[in-house]
């Protein structure tokens, strides 16, 4: 990949061998030299050679490149006068070895293709040709439309394109605005939740006043904690202890492992209790105003129960959540806003009838 010997105008046969590549047999171009055998090669030639013969010199020695070519070689190459490679297309310049590369890169007589019609022509002619070629692609500086010169571009089309682009920009802005509003609403909801948590109200049944004749179990008062409790009973811890003792004595514990006392983990004397007896279902409601619920603690007397919880306002279902409960007390997080009742429904039958749901703590915000 060197320079053809025929392009040298001042060559001497006695020195040609000293400046010839042993691979391509042309005049060395950008030479490198083997430090072992002192033979020189074109940089491109030895690179391709070493890809196929790693670390082996074309002269069959170990190849190790010298830091610089020999000074004599550099001096011989610098004295050469070389015809431009584009002399076949009209260039008559004769150049030194050092100036050859830059000249041939800029030479007006090198062949190039028109970027529009792909016709081959001299570089100096291409610049003139492309100013009138009807296949050249142009771009409108107003609407940025790209078009071929032959097709043209008028003001009406330009204005239409500008209008379309503006409409697209407006749609993008509206979409970004919509996304920002969603993010803002979520942040606002989190802020509201945090504010509500600071003002939360915990119903733990420690202030529940039982019926005079039913100290241990009975219906929860209709307006207890300013809420309406439909199909809910209260259960005293002493009752739970007696029932668990009965379970142990009757060896029923081995059947499902559930204990009544599991609901009493917050130190209170009472918990809310309900049975699932369709079509009736337990409801906690507020008359005349809405409330927010953050969470509640609950368990069941069955090994595994599926419970469906619904949040409603004006009899319209706003929220729903399905949970699986065991005898272990579990915190159910809802974070429901602006509802006026919570309904509890049995899910799929799990193998035990008359599931008992217990609520030991209700957190309103």
Automatic annotation (TrEMBL):
InterPro entries: Znf_RING, Znf_RING/FYVE/PHD. Keywords: Metal-binding, Zinc, Zinc-finger. The keyword Zinc-finger applies. Residues 21-58 form the RING-type domain. GO terms for molecular function: zinc ion binding. The keyword Transcription regulation does not apply. SUPFAM superfamilies: RING/U-box, TRAF domain-like. This is RING-type domain-containing protein. It comes from Adineta steineri.
């Amino acid at each position: 990949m060197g320079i053809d010997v025929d392009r040298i105008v001042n060559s001497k046969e006695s020195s040609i061998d000293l400046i010839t590549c042993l691979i391509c047999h042309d005049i060395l171009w950008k030479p490198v030299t083997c430090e072992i055998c002192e033979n020189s090669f074109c940089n491109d030639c030895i690179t391709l050679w070493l890809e196929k013969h790693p670390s082996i010199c074309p002269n069959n020695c170990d190849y190790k490149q010298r830091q610089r070519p020999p000074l004599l070689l550099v001096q011989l190459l610098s004295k050469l006068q070389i015809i431009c490679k584009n002399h076949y297309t009209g260039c008559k310049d004769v150049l030194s070895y050092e100036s050859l590369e830059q000249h041939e890169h800029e030479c007006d007589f090198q062949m190039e293709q028109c970027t529009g019609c792909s016709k081959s022509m001299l570089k100096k002619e291409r610049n003139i040709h492309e100013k009138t070629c009807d296949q050249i692609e142009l771009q409108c500086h107003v609407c940025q439309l790209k078009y071929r010169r032959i097709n043209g571009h008028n003001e009406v089309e330009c204005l239409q394109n500008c209008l379309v682009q503006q409409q697209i920009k407006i749609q993008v802005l509206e979409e970004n605005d919509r996304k920002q509003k969603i993010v803002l609403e979520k942040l606002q909801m989190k802020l509201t939740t945090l504010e509500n948590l600071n003002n939360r109200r915990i119903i733990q049944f420690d202030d529940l006043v039982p019926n005079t004749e039913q100290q241990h179990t009975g219906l929860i008062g209709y307006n207890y904690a300013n809420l309406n409790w439909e199909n809910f009973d209260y259960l005293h811890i002493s009752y739970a202890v007696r029932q668990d003792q009965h379970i142990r004595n009757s060896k029923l514990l081995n059947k499902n492992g559930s204990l009544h006392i599991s609901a009493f983990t917050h130190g209170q004397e009472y918990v809310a209790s309900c049975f699932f007896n369709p079509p009736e279902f337990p409801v906690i409601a507020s008359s005349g105003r809405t409330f927010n619920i953050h969470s509640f603690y609950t368990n069941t007397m069955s090994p595994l129960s599926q419970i469906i919880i619904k949040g409603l306002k004006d009899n319209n279902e706003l929220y729903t959540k399905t949970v699986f409960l065991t005898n272990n007390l579990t915190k159910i997080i809802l974070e429901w806003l602006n509802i006026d009742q919570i309904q509890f429904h049995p899910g799929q039958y799990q193998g035990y009838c008359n599931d008992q749901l217990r609520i030991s703590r209700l957190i309103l915000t």
